[in-house]
Amino acid sequence: MARITASVYTSHVPAIGVALDLHKTQEDYWQPLFAGYDFSKQWMKDNKPDVIFLVYNDHATAFSLDMIPTFAIGTAAEYKPADEGWGARPVPVVKGHPELASHIAQSVIQQDFDLTIVNKMDVDHGLTVPLSLMCGELDPVKDAWPCPVIPFAVNVVQYPVPSGQRCFALGQAIRKAVESFDEDLNVHIWGTGGMSHQLQGARAGLINREWDNNWLDLMINDPVACAKVPHIDYVREAGSEGIELVMWLIARGAMADVNDGQRSGPLPQVAHRFYHVPASNTAVGHAILENN
Ligand code: DHB
Ligand code: FE
Fold first, then answer.
1. Would you call 59 a catalytic residue per the annotation?
2. Closest ligand 1 atom to the C-alpha of 282?
3. Fewest CB atoms within 10 Å of the CB: 72, 191, 210, 234?
4. Domain Extradiol ring-cleavage dioxygenase class III enzyme subunit B, which positions (predicted)?
């Protein structure tokens, strides 16, 4: 049986990808941010997964206002890094896991979550920046990402976006789906995006350190209560793009201590936790949780 053994949470910011790709990680501005991921890169080597189920959001790259799936699962064999206006990032092509992805699509749709199935798409900074933060710099041709990745895109860009509650319930369905796959696979689930940031309007540049850290405490220790946080709180407290945080609840809902919408049994171990302000306009949050 396949099992989810850990969850990883991290912000994404396009400028982080640029800093990596232009070898600026040791510059004064960037060094403290990348230092927060030194533990994580070693942890990835020590706890190498067979598959990463990577929850992220597309930023009008693969999708656009023409077509807005709420939840989209990638079932392809590979995904190319997208050109977001400055050329594709020089990182390896992302290999998929069509067998597990198709199984999860079947199981989760049968559990009454309507997923869009995607057989062809490019992946933007929402997916490649978390991978780079956790895996470090890789040669686009000679190297490969450590394992196959199943991209799972959530619409948090164009309203109406899904609630934290729905994301949390979806995470539970994803765990059931993974655990009903026959092959013995060690699966990690990642929730990405956030934390506080607002890229537009009168409040552009908003950062809310206190709210972010309280939310992170709640997400880790009382995810049932965290799932009830309404959209308006994210937007008011964490800025218009702070809503990306609902994606972290998909990963948290897939952990072993969440059953039938309630917490039971021991909390996951917090292997690592990090917070840094700012990276571009964004408050960067990061955590690694391991199932007991
Ligand atoms: C920034 C953050 C994002 O989440 C994003 O998608 C684009 C830009 C930023 O802080 O620059
Ligand atoms: Fe974003």
1. no
2. 10
3. 210
4. 8-284
Ligand 2 mean position, distance from CA 234 (Å)? 14
In the structure, which protein residues have their CB atom closer than 6 angstroms to any atom of ligand 1?
12-15, 59, 197, 199, 241, 280-282
Let me know the angle formed at the C-alpha of 193 by 189 and 199, rounded to the nearest 5 degrees: 175
User: 145 with 138: CB under 8 angstroms?
Assistant: yes
**What ranges in the chain are assigned the alpha helix state H?**
14-21, 31-35, 38-46, 98-110, 125-135, 164-179, 209-221, 223-226, 231-238, 248-253
Distance 183 CA to ligand 2 centre (A): 34
Q: What is the pLDDT of residues 66-125, one digit of tens each?
A: 999 999 999 999 999 999 999 999 999 999 999 999 999 999 999 999 999 999 999 999
Q: Domain 3-290 classified CATH 3.10.105.10?
A: no
The two beta strands, 258-259 and 78-79, are unpaired
Based on the residue annotation, tell me whether 97 is a catalytic residue of this protein. no
DSSP state of 244: G
Type of residue numbered 231: H
Domain locations along the chain: 3-290
What distance in angstroms lies between residue 31's CA and the mean position of ligand 1's atoms?
19
Residue whose CA is at the smallest distance from ligand 1 atom 1? 13
In angstroms, what CA-CA distances link 99 with 73, 85, 182, 219?
Answer: 12, 32, 11, 31
Complex ipTM over 0.90: yes
pTM for the structure as a whole = 0.98
Q: 103, 197, 272, 286: which is the annotated catalytic residue?
A: 197
